[in-house]
Amino acid sequence: MTDESSSIFINVDSESRPVLSRSVSESGVSRAHNAITLQAKKNTVLKSHGRPPWYAEDGLPICDAFVVGIAGGSASGKTHVARQIVEKLGSIPTIIILSQDSFYKKHSPEEVKLAHANLIDFDHPNAIDMPLFANCLKDLKACKQTNIPIYSFAEHQRLDDTKYLYGAAVIITEGILALHDPALRALYDLKIFVQCDSDLMLARRLRRDIKERGRTVDGTLDQYLRYVKPSYDNFVLPTARHADIIVPGMDNGVAIDLIATHIRRKMKERASRFRPHMAQAGPPTPLSVPSTPDSHELLEPYENLILLPQTAQLKGIYTILRDKNTPREDFIFFTDRLATFLMEKAMEYLPYRSRTVTTPVDVEYTGKEIDAKYICGVSILRSGGPLERGLERVISDVMTGSLLIQSVAQTGEPLLLHLMLPVCIRERHRAKDTWVFLLDAQIGTGAAAFMAIRILLDHGVPEDHIIFVTFLVARSGGIGALRKAFPTVKIVCGAIDDSLRETWLEAIERGDGQIEAEARKVWVVEPGMGHIGDRYYL
C-alpha cells in the first residue's frame, strides 16, 4: 500500500522557464480541492536538478536551507517577484515558495460568519498564526520535513488537511507580514520588501479577489478601505526598514538579477564533494569473515552488520544470481527467494512482546508478537525494487514508499530527485513510532544509503528504528563511514564482496548518432551481481 505526498511540482527547464506539470495526489474531503488548487499557485515545490548532499561524513547536516523573506503590500507583486527569482536561479535545486496565506488562524463558527460579511481584519498581525509559521519555516530551514496548513479563502477557514513539504535547498517566504515577526526575521538569510504604488495594488487586488476568491466589487473595496489600507500603513510599510533590499513592484528586472546572483553565490559556497570520500572510507585491508555456517555477525567495526548464515544453499543462490548467463525467469525467481530470506532475517530485529493464545486443543501457548506501532518499507529506486517482493511476502499489508537517488554523471555525487514516503513517516508525531525497512540492492560507496538514512532521520524516524536490507555489501567501500555515522542502524545482507573499483561508463549512442546515455563515473562492486534492478525489470 503506497501513500503519496501531495505536491505541485514545477520543473525548471534548461532555459529557466517554469513549466507546470501535474503530479498531485490529494487526500481528505473534496471541499479541500479548490483551496489546495488556489494555494498551489503560491505554495509550490520547484525542482530542477535534484538536491545534493546537505550533510557531512559524520551524518550531521552541514548547511541549512537558504531562506529568503519577501514582504510588501497586498497585491504588490510579491509572488511574481518570487517566481521571477526562481526563473533567474535556473539550475538551483529544489526550491520551495511558502506563502503566509496558509497560516491564517482557525476560526470559530461565529468568526466564519463575520468573515463572510467582510467584518474580520485579515491584514492584522493577530490574524496570522505566527508561532506555527515560524515553526514550519524553522523545520524546513533545518532540512526537516513539515506539514503546512491549508486555508480555504472561499470558506474563510483553515482545513483539517495539511500539505507535506521537504527537501528544499532554497526557501522563498512571501506575505504582507513576512518581515513583521522577529522570530521569522531571525530565520531569513535575505530580506526583501516589494514597494508598489497604492493605486496599482488596489487594481490588482480587485481583479484577484473577484476572479480567484469569489468576492464582489463592493465587498473588496469595503475590506480594502476598512482593513487593508490601515494595516499597510500601520504594520506592513514599517517593516521595510528591516529589509536588505527594496524591490519595485514593477520593472524590477535589474534587482531580481542581483538577488539571483547573490543566491547562486551563496549556494556555491555551501556545495561540498561527498561521494569520493565515501568510496575510500572502508578499511585499508579487508577484514576476515567468520567461516562457520551459522555465523552471522562480523568483526568490529561491523557490529551491526548482520550476514545471513553462509549455507551451501545460499551460496548456490548467489552463484546463480552472479552468472550473467542466467535466464531472466530464473534470475527473478531466485532474487525473490533471496529477498524473502533477507526480510525474514530482518524481522528478527523488530521489537516483540509476549502473547498467550489458546491452541485448537484448548491448551495455552505463550509466544511472541510484533510490538511496533507502525512498520513500513522504503526502497531506493530502482535497485531496491527487487527486495519489495520479499517484504510483501513477510508482511502482506505493509506500507511502502520510495526514494529516487541518482548520481551526477561527471562527479558521481548523489542527488535526491524525488521521494514518495508513507504517511507514517511524513507526520513526525507518527515517525517516532515507525520502524522502517530501507531497501537497496547493494552498498558500494554507500552514498545513496547515506542520503536515504539522513532523509529518514530528517523526518523524525529514530536511528535505531532503521533496518537496512541489501543483497551485497562492498567491504572496502563506504560501509565504514556509514556505520561510524549511524552506529545503531542495522544492516542485513546476504554476501560481502571485497572490491570496489572506480571506473567510467562510456557514452551510449543511438543508431541516429544521438547520445542515449552520457559517460559517467561509477564505482563497481566486484565480483558483484551487475545492475540488479535492470536485470530484474528489463
Automatic annotation (TrEMBL):
Entry keyword annotation includes Heme: no
One matching Pfam family: PRK
Domain Phosphoribulokinase/uridine kinase span(s) in chain numbering: 67-250
Residues of the Phosphoribosyltransferase domain: 309-503
Keyword annotations from UniProtKB, A to Z: ATP-binding, Kinase, Nucleotide-binding, Transferase
Entry GO MF terms: ATP binding; uridine kinase activity
The family this protein is said to belong to: Belongs to the uridine kinase family.
Name of the protein this chain belongs to: Uridine kinase
